[in-house]
Design a protein that fits this description.
The protein has 18 helices and 7 strands. The protein is of the alpha/beta class.
Length: about 400
Amino acid sequence: MAVTCGIDWASDHHDIALVDGEGVIVAKARITDDLTGLNALLELLTTHGDGPDTPIPVAIETSRGLLVACLRATGRPVYAINPMAAARYRERHAVSRKKSDHLDATVLANILRTDRGAFRTLPSDTELVKAIAVLARAQQDAVWDRTQAANKLRSHLREYFPGFLASFESVREGLCHPVARELLAAAPTPENAARLTRTQLRAVVRRAGRQRGIEAEADRLREILKRPQMRQPPLVEQAMGRQARALLRQLDAACASADDLAAATVEAFETHPDATIITSFPGLGSLSGARILAEVGDDRSRFEDPKGLKAFAGAAPVTRASGKSLAVMARKVKNQRLAAVGYVWTFSAITASPGARAHYDRRREAGDRHSAAQRNLYNRFLGCLHHCLTNRIPYDETTAFPTKPIASAVAA
């Protein structure tokens, strides 16, 4: 009978359970999270019928880690089961709600035994896409860390140095701008900032990398920093200045990490064959395109139709119907990274594509709010993206947003 394997993973060990077609446990073990444990797992699978032509499917609650990577390298089908779904299946085997590592492994094995067709194996992406995914996700995390560090610094400066915030409130990058970070390093308190001369301010602007408008920028900063403002007591102000420098070092590190990872992500993305197709879409550059490719992958069998891709990205709505009750609402369970880049994509597209702008305006006129209209446009773009990647063709504006022919007047 067909044997299925369930793995309950942990940081230093993993529990293994093998069940046959009748749900009988044929083997169980606990392995370590190292090469010895992997060899023990492979030997256990081989003993119970695993082979090149009949690999035993494996269910596990994660899609990452060395164990998953090694199992995928052997060619075995690996299913990543959502922990919430596994928790619902556990209640079928233990109504008392008891829980153990061995029970969880058995539940995962039984999921494949009974409902294997309802789940999908991990996609067979190329090594290049996996590398792009690592870089793109790390860069996105670095951007979020940078935003968090900037918000902490802004909140701190508001308590003792509001004049500094006023100097960069109209600058697009805000406190992340090189001039802002260089100036705060040179003058972390209002007293230090008020003592800066025009020569010193020009030097600060130059160190930040600015090459034009140095005199005007130095005069602008000096005029704002000289304005009267509320002040903390001297000793408290100095202490808060030291804290600001500590927060600034965190922000500098986050900015450097985001920039370095962005360059590495773009470099890897531009070597992929799908890069030219993805960047042919309006509103998508190399970095945002890399984030799209990282989550979608290049295994074209992963999404058989556009509906699966739209649901995965959270662009397709969810319908809940029961009797006479019918509700259509935004999808909450989705790939959050793919959903995040969707709003950036559509926001840029409505200024770069006349068809996208017209589609967005129609949704707004129909009563959609801004986010709902963006989500609907994203849904449309994902359908086009699936078509272009499947057929290996670039984006075409007239095909994506065909204009309706003007009806000719009928002669009386």
